[in-house]
Amino acid sequence: MLLTITTTHRPADDLGYLLFKHPGRVQSFTESMGTAHVFYPQVGADSCTAALLLEVDPIRLVRRGKVRDADGFALGSYVNDRPYAAGSMLALTLKSVFGTAMTGRCAARPELAATAIPLQIHLPALRCLGGADLLGRLLEPLGWQIEATAVDLDPVAPEWGRSPYLDARLTGELRLADALRQLYVLLPVLDDAKHYWVSDDEVDKLIRAGEGWLAGHPEKDLITRRYLAHQGTLTRTALARLAEVDEATPAEFDDAEPAPEQPERPVRLAELRRGAVLAAIRATGARTVGDFGCGEGALVRDLLADGSLERIVAVDVSTRSLQIAAQRLHLDRMSEYQRARLEIFQSALTYRDDRLSGLDAAVLMEVIEHVDPPRLAALERCVFGFAAPGAVIVTTPNAEHNVRFESLAAGTMRHRDHRFEWTRAQFRAWADRVGDQFGYHARCVAVGPDVPQVGPPTQLAIFTRSAA
């Protein structure tokens, strides 16, 4: 499948800076579904065209379980339109190959990255369930002018009718980052299909990519529903979040027919915890952050999404956890810019490691309770003494809150690998002692509902360096 981007903004060959791809080279990238190539068919001061060609390997897709049999056709997994029709595979490749351009940052041409420039995007084989009418309804409100030609099922036999494919040209004046983010969302929406399983994190992807344009779009309901594969719970969650952005009330997105009020999905403790940690990091003003005990990379993903962070160090003692983190973070197809920001490696926090030094902030999220108490002093020396970041953020379970977990037997801990779980007083005493010993001021805060008598489910301490 092919996509081209053309600009006539002078000097047009500055498009290479915005895309972070040199106009003088053909570059290839290995993707989960095949190989992507970026090249420039036309380079000049008056006009410049960048092309993204995705060669899909259908056998690789089948082996990875990405394509199912079509309508019971025995070879449907191998013989289908996925290698040729622009859809979710092309959208995912856009994010992988042009991920840095999608952020809107360009150190070499910062003014250009922030400027709306004339763009023409050509999609020779765009699968659009809804035809040119739907294409116009989705893209014209965003400032695009549309030229779309329906493709016959068979040019030799026009009586067979039209196919669901369009030869589409989009012309407009937008920031390149905005155009790429819109395509990332709308390609799978027009196709009304995704080649991968849609889970909770797709809501976050939609909100991030739709920032600045989706909340006010007249077709946001349709866009959200199709992007989230018609999953009702995810769609309602996304529309409610978009309503907050649009200063509307979530009730506007209820079903047209009266229905019993649906209880809100409670925010999971893991989400609350990550949110509290991210807020604490932002409060410190850190630009370089370490996730010490990163596990399978849930927090690392959120850190990478924060454009203010210049360097992220992710470490864990478990090589298996690091392998899973690498898969979930898609290290193999991460953009050059994102990969340059991230260092991920194995390390034990109870042994000195100079690679952990020099950071503005470090996070130990649900880590200390996995350390044997006799080894805790070694972790304190290595993190607070040797690595000595400007700030340290620590979270751990509050043992007093355990009585509120109905599935937890009395006297047991929340995880079989926990070596201890502290009360609020024990955590406060530990934080004060470590702060005094290594020159930090410790402040403890609650994460989650702070219930009378038993406190919050998670307790968090923010250590900041004391004044000299």
Automatic annotation (TrEMBL):
It catalyses: small RNA 3'-end nucleotide + S-adenosyl-L-methionine = small RNA 3'-end 2'-O-methylnucleotide + S-adenosyl-L-homocysteine + H(+). Its EC number is 2.1.1.386. GO terms for biological process: regulatory ncRNA-mediated gene silencing; RNA methylation. One of its GO terms (molecular function) is metal ion binding. The keyword Metal-binding applies. It is an enzyme of class 2 (transferase). Keywords: Magnesium, Metal-binding, Methyltransferase, RNA-binding, RNA-mediated gene silencing, S-adenosyl-L-methionine, Transferase. Its cofactor is Mg(2+). Transmembrane segments: none annotated. Residues 1-243 form the Hen1 N-terminal domain. Residues 291-392 form the Methyltransferase type domain. Signal peptide: none annotated. Pfam families: Hen1_L, Methyltransf_12. Belongs to the methyltransferase superfamily. HEN1 family. This is Small RNA 2'-O-methyltransferase. It comes from Nakamurella multipartita (strain ATCC 700099 / DSM 44233 / CIP 104796 / JCM 9543 / NBRC 105858 / Y-104) (Microsphaera multipartita).
